């Protein structure tokens, strides 16, 4: 399952749980599925963050530095 599919399923689960009309046992199952999907998405994001590097030129040589996401004015991640 890719990141987008996992996020879509997670959003569906959240919507179902927010409606509040799900029987308790099904809600628990949905919650467990949601936690697994959340963990999967987190792992995939971590993998991507490790792969993303910005190539910069330093003193005439190419170098690498870790990707740093853009910051909002409040200093928090904009994503």
Automatic annotation (TrEMBL):
Q: Does the keyword rRNA processing apply?
A: no
Q: Which domain of life is it from?
A: Bacteria
From the UniProt record, list the reaction(s) this protein catalyses.
Answer: Exonucleolytic cleavage in either 5'- to 3'- or 3'- to 5'-direction to yield nucleoside 5'-phosphates
Enzyme class, spelled out = hydrolase
Q: Where is this region: Disordered?
A: 58-79
Cite the GO molecular-function annotations of the record.
Answer: exodeoxyribonuclease VII activity
**Gene3D superfamilies recorded:** Exonuclease VII, small subunit
Keyword set, alphabetical order: Cytoplasm, Exonuclease, Hydrolase, Nuclease
Locate the compositionally biased regions of type Acidic residues. 70-79
Q: Which residues form a coiled coil?
A: none
Against Pfam families, the record matches this protein to: Exonuc_VII_S (PF02609)
Give the EC number.
3.1.11.6
Q: What does this protein do?
A: Bidirectionally degrades single-stranded DNA into large acid-insoluble oligonucleotides, which are then degraded further into small acid-soluble oligonucleotides.
Assembly behavior? Heterooligomer composed of large and small subunits.
Family membership: Belongs to the XseB family.
Q: What is the protein named? A: Exodeoxyribonuclease 7 small subunit
Species of the source: Paenibacillus puldeungensis
Taxonomic classification, please?
Answer: Bacteria, Bacillati, Bacillota, Bacilli, Bacillales
């Amino acid at each position: 399952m890719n990141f987008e599919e996992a996020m879509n399923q997670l959003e569906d689960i959240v919507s179902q749980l927010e409606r509040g009309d799900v029987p308790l046992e099904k809600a628990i199952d949905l919650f467990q599925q949601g936690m697994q999907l959340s963990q999967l998405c987190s792992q995939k994001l971590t993998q991507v963050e490790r792969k993303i590097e910005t190539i910069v030129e330093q003193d005439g040589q190419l170098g690498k530095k870790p990707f740093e996401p853009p910051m909002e004015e409040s200093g928090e991640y904009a994503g």
